[in-house]
Amino acid sequence: MRYPGVSELATLVTDKVTDTVRSIEVMRQAGLVPFPRVDEGIRSLVAIRRFGPFAGANQIAARRDPTAVGIVDDLGQLTFKQLDAQSNALARAWSERGIKPGSVIAALCRDHRGLVLSMAAAGKLGVRLLLMNTGFAKPQLADVATREGVTALVYDQEFTGLLDAVDAEVDRYLAWVDPDVSLAGNEIPVLAELIASTDDRPWPAPAKPGGFVLLTSGTTGTPKGAPRPHTSPLASAQFLDRIPLRSGEATYMGAPLFHGTGLSQFILSFALGCKVVMRRKFDPEQTLRGVAEHRCTALVLVPTMLQRIVDLPAEVRAKYDTTSLRIIFVAGSALSPDLGNRATAAFGDVVHNLYGSTEVAVATVATPEDWRKAPGTVGRAPVGCKVVLYDSHGAKITEPHVTGRVFVGSGLSFGGYTDGRHKEIIDGLLSSGDVGHFDADGLLFIDGRDDEMIVSGGENVFPIEVENLLVERNDVIEAAVVGVTDAEFGQRLKAYIVRAEGSELDVDGVREYVKSNLARYKVPREVEFLDELPRNATGKVLRNKLGAS
Q1: Contact 435/406 with Cβ under 8 angstroms?
Q2: Is 261 helix (H, G, I), strand (E, B) or coil?
Q3: Whose CA, among 172, 308, 387, 448, lies 20 to 30 Å from 29?
Q4: Residue 125 CB partners (closer than 8 Å, separation 6+)
């Protein structure tokens, strides 16, 4: 093992001090550091250390302003103080029913107060909350519950039919009951009833606060569990450095909380004392209505949600005053240049494109200025993050426009999957599983997944380049390109395309269009038109269902 020399150590220390100073200043500007009330800052740190980043942030916000609204969901609003008290009651009720610190509770819920209260109660009780994807099929749900050692399952009533395959010994709790459904004969405890019938006095801090386990997208196999570590509060600066969230504002949460995009911005909004508006099911026009009604300054989405919003007729968008928006935060999958440009044209310079993953958390953020300069970029690494490209032999790439494997250093990175496996690490940096390149100005571009590269006739092709070209056409709504086995070329490109209504685009038209814009070997040999692309609940294309090899 090679140990760093004196000069290297000095550089590391200097960089660490510089990042810390910058992080504190970023947090001060956002309103997270209550200068000059140092005592309030200390109380905040203590609360987070005792109860974790979410339950602790809720307590801080409740103490700061007991009347401030914390969430607005389909049932109305709850203040931070009400959320704190009700999560005390839920933690106590769960404890009385035998849920002990260190156990795992799974949540199969859409976005609403039941999930939020479960998140806070888990932190207070010292249990792990496993956030399940609401798009799971029955076998996936059962497999993940067994692998992660789930002892209790909190779920929305609509998912009851998926629970048949889950071990009967796993306790069940209803987080949401549809208003028009009778509970006559129901024997499953309902969270709202448990909370109403249980003492809501402050709950004592656990020996170790609870945490969250996120699941990878599972687009190529069974989703893996990725615990989120308890990190320094300074890690918040990694979001705030390039995304100007501010305390006391309002955030509309379109992205689901079970996804890293939604969870991170939800926790950060709570830490800033922001009101968070959420709905159980995403609807593009309802989202604009909510932004206008609550004067939201931030809107958190995955790209497919943004697409549905900008696809609304101009006269529908014009019905709602969205001028309060300073941030449209987009993450979770690739934001195409065409979609980002359309969103900028519709809402102004507010699009912030974050690149990261369940494992590495934050890697880079493209600000509106970055996007104007280079549409399609994922920007630069914020304070506390580092992004380096390596070639297939592990050598560092320093030249612009040279594609390499993306490795990330971040205080928010995970420490390994729950099954003991890990991502590749080079020089202390974690593989994102993607390949990309920097331009001459140091802006990062993602060229695709490392395992999605298509080798056709000895030439390397990344699908995203062809896909971005295709969706620039007005008569194409969405497109996916995969590699299929070919006896002569090893693989050949096949494009799956969803045409706009009334489009007359045919196979020859697709091939000619790509041929006139890209190299000949990037032209799809096959083209198939679909009504829609198969996607998971967060909008990622399920390429394995398109017959990719």
Answers
A1: yes
A2: helix
A3: 387
A4: 91, 94, 95, 99, 101, 203, 206, 210
Residue type present at position 474: N
For residue 91, the tally of other CB atoms under 10 A from its CB is: 30
CA atoms within 13 A on the CB side of 168: 0
Selection from 213, 52, 220, 53 nearest residue 133 by Cα: 213
CA distance 410 to 505: 45
Q: Say if CB 106 and CB 153 are below 8 A apart.
A: yes
pTM of the model: 0.84
Spatial CA neighbour of 406 closest among 421, 384, 423, 420: 423
The full length of the chain comes to 549
Contact call for residues 397 and 454 (beta carbons, < 8 A): no
CA atoms within 13 A on the CB side of 292: 14
Give the three-state DSSP class for 270.
Answer: helix
CA-nearest of 21, 520, 547, 483 to 241 is 21
DSSP 317-370: HTTS--TT--EEEE-SS---HHHHHHHHHHH-S-EEEEEEETTTEEEEEE-HHH
Distances (CA, A) of 370 to 323, 349, 378, 433, 445: 21, 10, 8, 24, 11
Question: What is the Cα Rg of the chain in Å?
Answer: 24
Query: Can you tell me the distance from the alpha carbon of 460 to that of 39, in angstroms, rounded to the nearest whole number?
Result: 58
Residue the block writes with tokens 């700061």: 64
List the pLDDT tens digit at each of the 549 positions of the chain: 444 555 555 554 555 556 555 656 655 666 666 544 555 556 666 777 787 888 888 988 898 899 999 999 999 999 999 999 999 999 999 999 999 999 999 999 999 999 999 999 999 999 999 999 898 888 889 989 999 999 999 999 999 999 988 999 999 999 999 887 777 677 899 999 999 999 999 999 998 888 888 887 655 556 777 666 555 555 555 667 788 888 899 999 999 999 888 998 998 898 889 999 999 999 999 999 999 999 999 999 999 999 999 999 999 999 999 999 999 999 988 899 999 999 999 999 999 999 988 777 788 999 999 999 999 999 999 887 899 999 989 999 999 999 999 999 876 665 666 666 667 889 988 898 899 999 999 999 999 888 888 888 778 888 999 999 999 999 999 999 998 888 777 888 999 999 999 999 999 999 999 999 988 889 999 999 999 999 887 778 888 888 644
Give the integer Cα–Cα distance in Å for 140 and 138: 6
3-state secondary structure of 424: coil
Nearest to 214 by CA among 175, 253, 155, 258: 258
